[in-house]
């Protein structure tokens, strides 16, 4: 097979994460808008939302298991085949969610099967990111790991934009009754086409040079996760804490604010989706800038400065988000997603750089996914509870606290940009 160029590798790492995160984000938006009504109709509206957010959080619990499962094969068999398998698991789970009948048809089995499929989404995404980051960084030219590690980090921005646009289009062309009845399922079903594209691109790749060399030298472990936890537990835990700010900023803005804005503030769903479309552009802009800066000045300075700005943003959440003004709410969402991109982009190189080749897929993926549990899994449900009990300012304090955890973790971690 002809060796792929670095541009083809960059595109392959980008397109896979874009598709997988599109699948993940359409569920996030559906959980904020309709999942509770379809699968938990016996509850009052507040409990419906809470139940929907809990199913949303379930996938984050599954993601570390996916990182260990796919990391095992990624560190033993190779990056290419493992990445294709993770995309397939995610795609099948997403398609079946779109086809799953609601509570009115299946009763108790509907939410139960939803949880199983949501767990499957988490398993698939758990194996995706680590492999995509390695695909990019292990092919990167000298001194440009941060830049090439940015491409899988750019995928979530595009995936989120596609997810938002799909729900925005449905809100313009369908009535609320049509949307609740069948319209929300269309983005899930159409994802099968995107997965087909992703699989085609992934199967045209060759193995990364770093892993091919390790395999040729038989420098691999029988049980990569055992070797990882025995000798590299500290970078796994610190990497997970460093990821908290990215996750919390994103899912607070994209899920909690969407739900809170429509249900508590009375803002139109179309308006909030349009605001998120604007905000995600700021995330996409921040991603290459932050990655370039991390190659030039180091990962830690970029992450520390952007993390401290995120701490400050939490205190501005209540006055900006609570104003119900389209302008100020858009400003808050844009700042949140800009800082998410700034803290997220360097991690595509920074996490893999913490681990040797033989445990890199497992280590980087596990740190990334454990960060999801800490920063995102129950962020919408915790934020919902805080908003009910203490008001929007408490949600802002929660955002600041999560950002502070990441700042402290990065402060302890070593610099790796020029190693």
Note down, in words, how this protein is organized.
The protein is mainly α and 419 residues long. It has one domain: MFS general substrate transporter like domains (Growth Hormone, Chain: A, Up-down Bundle), CATH 1.20.1250. The chain contains 20 helices and no strands. Helix 1 packs parallel to helix 4. The longest helix has 32 residues. It is globular and about 60 Å long. The two termini are 31 Å apart. The model has no long low-confidence stretch (mean pLDDT 87).
Offer a concise description of the structure:
The chain is mostly helical and 419 residues long. It contains 20 helices and no strands.
List its traits.
Growth Hormone, Chain: A, 20 helices, 419 residues, globular, 0% strand
Provide the residue-averaged pLDDT.
87
Separation of the first and last Cα atoms: 31 Å
Total count of domains: 1
Shape: globular
Sheet with most strands: none
Global Rg: 20 Å
Question: What class, by secondary structure content?
Answer: mainly alpha
The named CATH superfamily: MFS general substrate transporter like domains
Number of strands: 0
Low-confidence stretches: none
How many helices does DSSP assign?
20
CATH class: Mainly Alpha
Strand residues, percent: under 5%
Second CATH tier, the architecture = Up-down Bundle
- Percentage of residues assigned to helices: over 70%
Order of helices and strands: HHHHHHHHHHHHHHHHHHHH
Give me the CATH fold name.
Growth Hormone, Chain: A
